[in-house]
Write a structure and sequence with these properties.
Layout: H1 3-15, H2 21-29, E1 33-36, H3 71-82, E2 90-94, H4 116-124, E3 128-132, H5 152-176, E4 180-184, E5 189-190, H6 197-213, E6 221-226, E7 237-238, H7 242-252, E8 255-259, H8 270-276, E9 283-287, E10 289-291, E11 293-297, H9 303-314, E12 321-325, H10 334-353, H11 357-365, H12 369-379, H13 384-394, H14 402-413
Parallel strand pairs: 1-2, 1-12, 2-3, 3-4, 4-6, 6-8, 8-9, 9-12
Antiparallel strand pairs: 5-7, 10-11
Helix pairs in contact: 1-13, 2-10, 3-10, 5-6, 8-9, 9-10, 11-12
The chain binds L-rhamnitol and zinc ion.
């Protein structure tokens, strides 16, 4: 049976459950996923030829060959990845990925001009750009404290960096006529118990207020702050905890960034969406997959991701939730890792859009728990893959497993030649 025939049959099957497949695809068509540039080179960046991730809070493991060694290779890899993902998406840059042309530019010196070639590249590729200050992999982060450092000169350095990064992001938004999201995550914390938690958090609050005192046009820039439960080397104390940033985002009217790996493993990130959106106009999600800890495994179509997308769609909040990927696995082909995570995320959104919600809600309204659960169970057997394949085909990207070979070919002809 052809893709088209399978699709027509699937439409019929969904219609019997009161679901309009064409309407769902029209919504999916507008969803933009922000791909994280840092999956392409294990969070190394281009400050020096041998830049690599260092410091507390996050960690990359693995040494699969073929990572991007410079800006051209990273762009080539990204172009390959985008060509295998249906739809028009975004790129999420970190400050260490500037086009520094071999010059040593410290973080408190980054400027929009260091990212101009990214803007040109994004324009050619029809991508919007997001941005992140990089407050790790730097000597002034090695103490474990950046914006909350007890030394005012260290705080000032990072405040300056973050302000410049927000300006760079606003420049992206203006140049590309699509708002850029700037997200701030800092590694600040400690391995063992800290006595001065209040004072440390008070210092972070002061630094943040300085950073966000810089007024930028909200049509060009959206601001998000990212909380965390614990990290490697910050097991006992994370300065920017969930409560800290929830309070901050609410009181300063910023976006809160929820990273799926940043909570207790049994805590549901999905369940936070409907609560937070009652108080915050928008959220940013870092789609990730933690295995036992914030391990940043490649995102797959698992229960957590599906539940999250269900909650976003059920809350009618696709327009209020910015979706970005955040994982880094150096144990597999990095282009393949981007594509797996992006396709899984889109598939989870599609599945949520195709949920027989009207029927399930009818049972719920009547207090019929059995009927609601039965509908949700039966929905798992609906022909999602026939709709997904049609969408991929319509968007001109490989259908089903065909994209795997495309990554293998790229590895053979391009990535394997890198030493
Ligand atoms: C770290 C945060 C943060 C980073 C990126 C590289 O735990 O998740 O978002 O992964 O900024
Ligand atoms: Zn994150």
């Amino acid at each position: 049976m052809s893709i088209q025939q399978r699709f027509e049959q699937a439409k019929q099957a969904y219609a019997e459950w009161g679901v309009d497949v064409d309407a769902a695809l029209a919504v999916l068509n507008d969803v933009q996923i922000s791909l994280h540039c840092w999956q392409g080179d294990d969070v190394g960046g281009f400050e020096t030829p041998d830049s690599s991730l260092s410091g507390g809070g996050i960690q990359v493991t693995g040494n699969y060959p073929g990572k991007a060694r410079n800006i051209d290779e990273l762009r080539g890899d990204l172009e390959k990845a985008y060509s295998l993902i249906p739809g028009q998406h975004r790129l999420n840059l970190h400050a260490i990925y500037g086009d520094f042309e071999g010059k040593k530019i410290d973080r408190d010196q980054v400027e929009p001009k260091h990212f101009r070639s990214w803007v040109d590249w994004a324009r050619v590729n029809g991508l919007a750009l997001d941005f992140n200050a990089t407050c790790f992999s730097h000597p002034l982060a090695s103490s474990g404290y950046t914006l909350s450092n007890a030394d005012p000169s260290v705080r000032e350095f990072w405040v300056e960096h973050a302000k410049r990064c927000r300006e760079i992001g606003a420049g992206f938004g203006k140049a590309l006529k699509q708002r850029s999201n700037h997200n701030l995550w800092i590694p600040d914390g400690a391995k063992d118990n800290v006595v001065s938690r209040y004072a440390t958090r008070e210092r972070l609050l002061g630094s943040l207020d300085e950073i966000y005192s810089l007024q930028l046009d909200s049509r060009n820039l959206g601001d998000a702050v990212e909380c965390k439960l614990f990290g490697i080397g910050s097991e006992a104390f994370v300065v920017g905890s969930h409560e800290f940033y929830m309070g901050y985002a609410l009181s300063r009217k910023l976006m809160l960034c929820l990273d799926m790996g940043h909570f207790h493993p049994t805590e549901s990130v999905a369940d936070k969406v409907s609560s937070l959106l009652l108080y915050l106009p928008e959220l940013l999600i870092h789609v990730s997959r933690g295995v036992r800890w914030d391990s940043d495994h490649v995102v797959t179509l698992g229960d957590d991701l599906r539940a999250l997308m269900q909650e976003i769609v059920r809350s009618d909040a696709l327009g209020k939730v910015n979706i970005a990927l955040d994982y880094f696995d150096a144990e597999m082909n990095r282009v393949g890792a981007w594509v797996i995570g992006s396709r899984a995320t889109l598939k989870a959104i599609l599945e949520a859009l195709l949920e027989p919600a009207v029927i399930a809600r009818k049972y719920e309204t009547k207090g019929q728990a059995f009927g609601r659960l039965a509908v949700l169970e039966e929905a798992k057997n609906l022909p999602l893959s026939d709709v997904w394949d049609y969408f991929c085909d319509a968007k001109g990207v490989p259908v089903g497993k065909d994209w795997i070979g495309a990554v293998e070919d790229y590895e053979k002809s391009v990535q394997s030649k890198r030493s």
